Amino acid sequence: MRPADLALLRTPGVPAVSPDGRMAVVAVGRPDLDADCYRGQLWAVPTDGSAPARPLTSGARDSAPAFSPDGRWLAYLSAADGGHPQLHVLPTAGGAPRRLTDAPLGAGAPVWSPDSRRLAFVARVPEAGRYGTAEGVPPEAEPPRLVTRLRHRVDDVGYTADRPSCVFVLDLPADPFDDTAELPQARQVTDGRGEDTDVAWSPDGRTLAFVSARHARADRDLVRDVWLVPVTGGEPRRVTRGRGECRLPAFDPAGAALYVTARPDLGPDGLDVAARGLTLCRVPVAGGPLQPVLDPREHHRGDDTPATVLAGGAALVGVERRGSVALLRVPLDGGTPETLVDGPFTVRGFGTGGGVVVATVAHDRSAGELVALTPGRRRLLTGFGSALGATGRLHRSTERTAVAPDGTRVHGWVTVPEGPGPHPVLLTVHGGPFTQYGWSLLDETQVYVSAGYAVVQCNPRGSSGYGEEHARAVVGAWGERDADDVLAFLDAALADPALDADRVGVHGGSYGGFLTALLLTRTDRFAAAVVERAVTDPVSFAGSSDIGWWYAAAYMGPDPVSPLAEAARIRTPTLVVHSEQDERCPVEQGRRLFVALQQRGVPSALLLFPGEGHELSRSGRPRHRLARFEHLLAWWDRWLPVEVQASRSRAPSADTTSRPSIRVQGKTATWPEPGTGSPPSIS
What we know:
8-stranded mixed beta sheet; 11 helices
């Protein structure tokens, strides 16, 4: 995969399935490099495979499809170029879509009422005079913000206190086909005091469940409860009684219980969240504590479905397992769970209707395809990844297991370019740490391998997907067992003669950037490094990150190790990559590391992306993602070139010592000479 192949990437979302099970609709997103934006269309996919998938809408960015229970309507979100997403409805029998909302900051995903006549959704309500509500008042001219709470901003959103998230209900027009009829106004049902999210309807259509943090210590812990409110509005009633973090409530068919995705118990201070699994739980509608249906120590939910899906007396749940996400059918009566999808796959999301389950399933050479599941049969429905696959530039990963010094088995993958090698090696370290590498298409791995690098990646202790004991082994001890695991896996991989053990680089992002920087303070074995969107100083991180006020204490402990404090030990050429609007790991973390390296003459550079947050590499502007890849490849080409002289005893050739340059916005960026600390020059 080449950097420009981003334009071929097609990523399907979570499918909606018609009530009769005959049709699935899925949003498929793609980067548009020419327009520097993302496009999204809804595609209609017959679940019996009788016809190929076909485009259903042609909006700039269409997403979040939802069939009405009676099957007559498809609601979805659509956003014009540069605009906010708004609710639209499309008749399934044919006809033009109609926009239903004009929310100032956009509407959230639609949720149908049981009678198919109303929609609930969540939207942010801007304070008067802010966020474009006052004509002619740009953001820099708005009044000052008086911040009085710890929880007041979120990465990729910004400040939240002056635009709270609230629940709304919208009646469908009496005649949805009449474009001349006045649109009904959405009714605000909650006041947003607790950042209200994840709305769901009761079976009788009279009550809404939602998630909120409205308790006395809501600003000091991570507890989030399920609340009920009448559809007509009123004082919400708290359902969950305990110290859990709840998400995605769903009523059982009788309306007597709610099933939620939750961390059941965050401890007496409500902050014991580190490496605690999210799993399926039950709570009576009358109120009470969360009752786990699956063991959170072994079943951590890993799919992206924006709901807790109940059907046929069971719940559907995606569970992380050793780098995969398996799909389970969990009987609500306590029966044994049934595995519907397992193996080297990642179930991204799923929907169900008419006895058919449709899942979006990814693997190491596809960002996702739709698969229909019926008793005794699985049917592949789409080929969204075919254009990228047809390039011949996607590579299969090989599963490996190594043994750490204390005997712990470390699981991971090695992806090797074509040809005999030995190939230069890039060790990549994932973020989190409570997440996992696994069986899905990772564009970064593919780009590196296509450029000639063997990529080594593993799930050290701290990662999800291997049980709570494995995940919590690093709590309060970053840089110990996790570092041992990563290096043990690398050493085991380097035993393969196809990998060049003398030519190795390391690249990590977020927590992975922390571990990368820390390794650089302990060893000079790496030819070069990339430290991206990293935590480099836990002390300043605690006061500057949107989550730092709780995350640092929960994960790093009272006396955390600091790569920045040990930066004087670093001798490895290091590229520091950061986004200027990163609220998760603020840009000062990267800038301070860069300055420390420059002051000591370490070959280094600082690559900054304006207007981007923490998710740059996954969802940043397409041209920024392309530029990032070009810079990374130029950095590796400078310090770890793929082409080397036939004999290491010979002097380096002119090709291997030349200074590679890349084109950046019409100018040429050149990396510094070895042994200098000067930043890239622009000519």
